[in-house]
Amino acid sequence: MAKKKKAEKGVKAPTAGVRKSRKSKKPWSGRFEHPMAKSAEDFTSSVHFDVRLYKQDIVQSIAYARALFKVHILSGAECKKTIKALEAILKGIEKNKIKLKPDLEDVHMNIESLLIEKVGDMGKKLHSGRSRNDQVATDLRMYLNFEVTEVIFLIKKLQDTLLDLAEANISVIMPGYTHLQRAQPILFSHHLMAYFEMLERDKTRFVKVGEEIDVMPLGSAALAGTNFKIDREGLAKELGFSKVSRNSMDAVSDRDFAIDFVSAAALLMMHLSRFAEEIIIWSTYEFDYIELPDQFTTGSSIMPQKKNPDIAELVRGKTGRVYGDLMALLTVMKGLPLAYNRDMQEDKEAVFDAVDTLKAVLPIFEEMIRSTKIHAENMEKAAKKGFLTATDLAYYLVQRGVPFREAHKIVGEIVAYCEDSNMELEYLSLPQLKQFSTAFGYDATRILSTKSSVSSKDVSGGTSPARVKESIKRARKHLLHDKT
Ligand code: ARG
After folding, report:
1. C-beta 248 within 6 A of ligand 1
2. 38-125, CATH topology level
């Protein structure tokens, strides 16, 4: 307050020399009388996690140095020296020769301070017209820009393995379920292709997220835009962005792109978790549809016979943490006034965690399913038990003019009869069927096998072998030509 009054009266501000005698070493320490408390320094420091952005930060700074040269803030020689020093810092960090300091707050200030150490006062020019606010938003977008393509690559790999598995087991029949009750016979390959479709949507989602990420905030400075006529379009091109942000305030305070990424990650994890759940169920003694490879299971420290599906369980379990990351981001952002607020520093760990989880889960899931043994005979046996072709029988009657509701009732009675006499539909004779409806003809018994049931679903998207083969072929071709 006192200081403000002095300023109003036009009293000269203390000289830099006076300030220097005070303790703080921060680049922003000019207006402070006291250094930051150690506890506050520890509390606000983010370098232990945002160090991950060092490469993006340096690449950005190199491009920015060139932009400053073009507007005559840096001379040619200064620009060259700055770039050389930044390249050396990059190498130093990469080779673990440089350790970043927590008391310098974040990765951005660490790199700036390293630069000043190397080139002296000239290094102090680099932050002209730039704020950590547009700097960090640019770094994070550059980071995600790269990671999004990594994730897309891993999704494709998993899709490819699904196609291999579907092809190798093209005509294996299994029970399809609703409410986890046996419903209708389906092809195992059709079941696998359902996951292919989910992953296809995930991939498309990540491609769209990539487009959202592809906007460069640099040049927005703290919030109002930079004072210097830097060539933002040129900078964007150099940094791999195809667009520049249109509003400086939005640019520095927008984390939608990070939320989009983690949201797509949460959806992908949800799909993998459902698949993991099925793998867990299928590998039980009760189902015994598959056998997980030894390499991707664990034993029990007490029960010698156990073979546990821990990988699949952890995939299911890790879904929760990615949902948590999404919730964290949404909650951090929900009450923030424009523009930048320090709360936003909390975005990084959630984003990094989602990236790490996807990059850990996708490859191991792919490896696990690639080497899983399929017990085709058990699947086929299961599909024959539980009257799974009852609906086909009802449709047989429908085709002979019986209204569906009536046909449903007749077949319900046939099922009850079979249950009482411990018999499967497939083994009913024509005279037995005729007792329930005179509409049954000589060909009725032929449609009761699981094989004829799946073949009859000859509709696009259906489970007939011809349709599934076609969909695998189409998917294979699509994947091969997919340039995303
Ligand atoms: N470490 C900060 C973050 O990650 C960088 C931006 C800090 N900006 C500031 N004005 N305090 O968000």
Report:
1. no
2. Fumarase C; Chain B, domain 1 (1.10.275)
Average pLDDT over residues 22-30: 71
6 has pLDDT over 60: no
Provide DSSP, 13-35: PPPHHHHHTSS---TTGGG-SSP
- Residue 290 pairs in a beta bridge with 374
Percent of the chain at pLDDT > 90 equals 88
Calpha distance 319→44 (Å, rounded): 29
Angle at 118 between CA 138 and CA 74, to 5 degrees: 60
Give the residue among 34, 15, 13, 11 at the shortest CA–CA distance from 24. 34
Question: Domain residue spans in the chain?
Answer: 38-125, 132-381, 384-471
115 pLDDT band (50/70/90 cuts)? very high
User: How many angstroms from the chain centroid is the CA of residue 44?
Assistant: 28
| Residue 464, Cβ density class (10 Å: 0-12 exposed, 13-18 middle, ≥19 buried) | middle
Residue 483 has a pLDDT of 81
179 lines ligand 1 (CB under 6 A): no
Q: Say whether 478 is catalytic.
A: no
**β-strands 215-216, 243-244 pairing:** parallel
Cα dihedral: 109, 112, 116, 122 (round 10): -130
Closest CA relative to residue 322, chosen from 297, 368, 357, 361: 357
Per-residue pLDDT averaged across 423-431, rounded?
93
Q: Does residue 106 have a pLDDT over 90?
A: yes
CA of 104 to the centre of ligand 1 (A): 12
Establish whether residue 339 lines the binding site of ligand 1, counting it when its CB lies within 6 angstroms of any ligand atom.
Answer: no
Whether pTM > 0.90 for this model: the answer is: yes
Cβ-based neighbours of 57, under 8 Å, separated by 6 or more: 107, 108, 111, 135, 139
Can you tell me whether residue 191 is helix, strand or coil?
helix
What is the pLDDT of the chain when averaged over all its residues?
94
pLDDT of residue 7: 40
Beta bridge partners of 178: 181
Say which CATH superfamily domain 132-381 falls into.
Fumarase/aspartase (Central domain) (1.20.200.10)
Token digits of residue 228: 């210097």
Q: What value does the mean pLDDT take over residues 5-34?
A: 59
* Nearest ligand 1 atom to alpha carbon 105: 1
Kindly state the tokens that stand for 76.
């040619």
Classify domain 384-471 at the CATH superfamily level.
Fumarase/aspartase (C-terminal domain) (1.10.40.30)
